Amino acid sequence: MRVEIALIRHGATAGNRRGAYIGCTDEPLCIESTRQLQLDRQRGRYPTVETVFCSPLRRCVQTAQLVYPQRQAVCVEALRECDFGQFEGKSHHQLSGHPAYQRWLDSGGRTAFPGGEDPVQFRRRCWRGFTELCAGLYRDERAAVVCHGGTIMAVLEQCGRPRGDFYRWQVKNGGGYRFYFDTETQMASEIRPL
Question: What is the pTM of this model?
Fold first, then answer.
């Protein structure tokens, strides 16, 4: 069965603006981002959908409300961003010279965050949450999933082509991708940026 999906990254927060790793911290959107999301919606950037899902974190709930004000978003716990542990709330600049941060960078982002979530488990959690929500959709139904940059990369790493290319799917705040998802083959097709 094929469904149409829009994966949308939440609007910017103060932490995003300063380049910090913001995972489990429940920051609200900043004012400028709220205005930009409203403008993007008015200009037709975001597709029409029947169903909206989102991460339960405030920045995603607020983004879903701004982009799809006529829809009640369903919060999906598995769509949360990764817990960055000791790196949470800190920028690359602040972490430079920290041995654990350097090890994480040297690993290509594959090792666990000190005191945080294991990246492999994070990706599995996101993929499970995404496939479960898609399984509940009707044939040809259109759905938006308002979530986090890491969540989007985790999902498209699994179903995009080529598979396994996590960082290829980085997207700016308010951006994202549209695609068709086949729930049987669990592959995406016709992936295009919003």
Answer: 0.95
